[in-house]
Amino acid sequence: MGSEVSVRAIISKEFCSKSEVILNVRKRPNAINGGGLIVRNCSQEVAFRVDGCGTLGLKNQLIVKDASDNSLLLIRKQGGVVQALSFYNKWKGYSEDYEGTQKPVFSIREAVLCFSKRCPIRIYMEGKHCTRDWDFEIQGSFSDRDCVIKDHNGTIVAQVGVTEDIVKTMLRKDVYYVVVQPGFDQAFVLGVIAVLDNMFDGATRC
């Protein structure tokens, strides 16, 4: 018998699989529902959607939805005086409970004074999932669709890449895959991907 898969549910156990999951991400044209991302599973069924400001009409705000169009995560970029005085660009992700109350789940910080596209971007969890330091780190270049999300122990939990037939075409930034490791929360990973897409002038950004 194989070892039991450890489930790391952040949004919901519903989005944690006992086996590796490959999600195909495609840019949604601005002419269709205001742009954003559409995410399909290996059966080519819609698994998630990401709406950006083209749909929402609000700059620096993103929503991750499931296949039934239910909102899973609301993500906002910090602004105002606090952001202007900060050394980081900071995003915060919120989930909603059954009463509609928003609960902070994670924050993502990108160093403002970073002159390399491969500078680490770190993720800090809220509540019961948090540690004393950063919890996850993006290593590599999302701009090139070649990066990984690692936890604090250095374990890869998700990887972003491009298939060989796409890598040399102009579509490499519009069509790519995300491999999520067994037991890890796919909805959370898509929340991170949504922020990275916005950071690097993707389909969610106006």
Q: Helical percent range?
A: 10-25%
Rounded mean pLDDT is 83
- Largest sheet, spatial ordering of strands: 1-2-3-4-5-6-7-8-9-10-11-12
CATH class: Mainly Beta
What would you give as the CATH superfamily? LURP1-related
Molecular structure report:
By secondary structure, this protein is mainly beta. The protein has a single domain, classed as Porin (Beta Barrel), CATH 2.40.160.200. It is 13% helix and 39% strand. The protein is built from four helices and twelve strands; from the N terminus they run E-E-E-H-E-E-H-E-E-E-E-E-E-H-E-H. It has a twelve-stranded antiparallel barrel. A hairpin with a 7-residue loop joins strand 1 and strand 2. The mean pLDDT is 83. Belongs to the LOR family. Pfam families: LOR. This is Tubby C-terminal domain-containing protein.
List keywords for this structure.
single chain, 206 residues, mainly beta, Porin, 12-stranded antiparallel barrel, 4 helices, globular
Give a short summary of the structure.
With 206 residues, the chain is mainly β. The chain has helices at 53-56, 80-84, 164-167, 186-199; strands at 21-28, 36-40, 46-51, 61-66, 71-77, 88-96, 102-111, 121-125, 136-141, 146-151, 156-161, 175-180.
Topology diagram in text:
Layout lengths: L20 E8 L7 E5 L5 E6 L1 H4 L4 E6 L4 E7 L2 H5 L3 E9 L5 E10 L9 E5 L10 E6 L4 E6 L4 E6 L2 H4 L7 E6 L5 H14 L7
Antiparallel strand pairs: 1-2, 1-12, 2-3, 3-4, 4-5, 5-6, 6-7, 7-8, 8-9, 9-10, 10-11, 11-12
Protein name: Tubby C-terminal domain-containing protein
Pfam families: LOR (PF04525)
Organism: Amborella trichopoda
